[in-house]
What does this fold into?
Amino acid sequence: MRSRGLPKVRRELENVRVLGDNPIVTVIADNKKRVVLPSAKPGDCFQVDLIGDQEVRLTLLKPAPKADKARLVRGPKGYLLAVGSRTITQEEVRAAMDEFP
It folds into this structure.
């Protein structure tokens, strides 16, 4: 946006960034009682607290950590591979080998 012709006060207001608290956002429910939260991500889970008749508080809940269990699978050449999302210990490899068919 060109700001050359605008007064100095207007140019300064355009460059102001909100720090700290987020500005108030108004959302409108559709006919199925749904609203879109601008900062929500797919899969976010919120606790809804009704405060009186006119106020609703949404609290973002943190997801429970998923148990990462190591398991063994057959690789492309028939080798056994340990699969998991983190480095596994020798004890976890031994336990997975004991469970492997």
Summary: Residues 16 and 35 are 28 Å apart (CA to CA). The chain has two helices and four strands. Residues 8-61 form one domain. The two ends are 66 Å apart (CA to CA).
